[in-house]
Design a protein that fits this description.
121 residues, alpha+beta, 28% strand
Length: 121
């Protein structure tokens, strides 16, 4: 992302837990992207997986991995999974307005552009 916008796409599925998965050139990839400029992430988004059965499978697979590592399993949010049964096909993008402002003003850090900066001490 130096000198121009850079868009990263087709993430490994394990890097986009709630994104739809497709096959691209014989490989499974997540429908997720990020946009960078000057090394700063400006936006990210993905095509939302609304398949309750697939999401349950992913969550159970993650819990099996956690248990094999002697970590506690995550609680499955049954209300969320139920809601996915009527969830429409959709996607979304999150844009970091503060980051865009930082780049526009050539600031070195977000603290220089945040209206309510906090101290670290």
């Amino acid at each position: 992302g130096k000198g121009s916008l850079t868009v990263l796409t087709h993430y490994p599925p394990h890097e986009a837990a709630l994104a739809c998965i497709i096959e691209k050139n014989g490989e499974k990839v997540a429908k997720r992207f990020e946009i960078y400029h000057e090394g700063v992430e400006l936006a990210n988004g993905y095509h939302e997986c609304a398949d309750a059965t697939e999401l349950r499978r992913r969550f159970e697979e993650e819990n099996a991995i956690r248990l094999s590592q002697q970590k506690p399993a995550y609680h499955l949010d049954e209300a969320f999974l139920l809601a996915m049964r009527s969830f429409p096909d959709c996607c979304g993008v999150s844009v970091g307005f503060d980051r865009a402002l930082m780049l526009r003003r050539k600031a070195k850090s977000l603290k220089e552009v945040l209206p309510f900066a906090w101290s670290s001490g």
